[in-house]
Amino acid sequence: MLSVTKFSTDNCTCALNFSSSEYLQDTKDDSINMVVTSPPYVNLRKIGVHPDKYVEWFLPFAESIKRVLVEDGNFILNINEVIVKGIVHPYIDDLKQEFRKIGLNQIAKPYIWYKTTAIPNRCSHRAIDRYEYCFWFSNGKGTFYRDNVRVPYADITIKRVQNSDVISLGTRGEKGHKVFKKSRIDPRGSLPHNIIELSPECNPRIKHSAPFPIGLPEWFIKAGTVPGDTVLDPFMGSGTTAIAALKCERNVIGYEIDKEIFEYSKERINNFINKNLQEKVFKDKEN
Ligand SMILES: C[S@@+](CC[C@H](N)C(=O)[O-])C[C@H]1O[C@@H](n2cnc3c(N)ncnc32)[C@H](O)[C@@H]1O
To answer: For a Cys staple, 245 with which of 138, 231, 249, 251, CB 3.0–4.6 Å?
Structure first.
């Protein structure tokens, strides 16, 4: 461990480790409710991890993640495929297979982060890439707080429900799905689906080459944890997961190995906390 910086707010704590996360030193066994992370991308050049070596490189991190997760803990992995010599490299399949061997199972179909905007590119062999995977793993059953991530019903759904008692019969006939009786509209909103639509982070003030938007970790943190739980990002980068966790009143632990990026994440998180506390003081004065 090279150094640790701690912040606290009224409701939660934040510990930022300037250190490699390989062994998650200083993070106790059974202490983390959810890991949300986007690890370094595979890289075909000399810098970074080659896809052929990625599984071997990642396994010590996965073992440590397994160690620190509470029972039925959650592990969200944001990762993307890579095409090598015209063929999709199988490193993600291989990674999942190795995870299974150590007791980390994928417990939901992949969540898709659909990027609502994209930088134009000139790929002639295939369609433009507009999504990334977020895989949900667990050492048990995981936890899913669906009421935390309900969404408004589409206008068309509400109209259809208002116009008829039973909208349609399922394909299995009388005994099939009689769906959408009036009473089935839930006032808390509709259940979420597994496509998360967000534009990539393009704020030029964020000093990191590959940040994800705050909305991405925020969605998973809300879906898989409750206030007071603890979230970990072992590849913290600019601190986006930490900010999302603090926003949702979850404790957070982050690790970053690059000194310059670590210093920037501290500054970004500190600014976020100060701004929020100031807003809170302001609101308190108003009341
Ligand atoms: C894809 S970036 C994460 C970006 C982050 N999600 C954000 O929003 O800024 C991966 C980060 O992992 C860091 N990293 C690479 N190897 C590491 C290690 N062994 N331990 C901790 N951090 C590491 C890199 O320096 C990089 O900042």
So the answer is: 231
Give the span between the Cα atoms of 108 and 125, in whole angstroms: 31
**Domains of the chain, CATH where assigned:** 3-150+191-286 (3.40.50.150), 151-188 (no CATH)
Rounded to two decimals, what is the model's pTM?
0.90
Q: How far apart are CA 158 and CA 155, in angstroms?
A: 5
Low-confidence ranges of the chain (pLDDT < 70): 1, 44, 46-47, 164-183, 277-287
Pairing status of strand 230-233 against strand 32-37: parallel
Q: How far is the CA of 54 from the centre of ligand 1 (A)?
A: 15
For residue 50, what are the CA distances in angstroms to 1, 53, 90, 228?
26, 5, 12, 38
Which residue lies with its CA nearest to atom 20 of ligand 1? 20
What does residue 135 show for φ and ψ, rounded to 5 degrees?
A: -90, 140
39 Cα nearest atom in ligand 1: 10
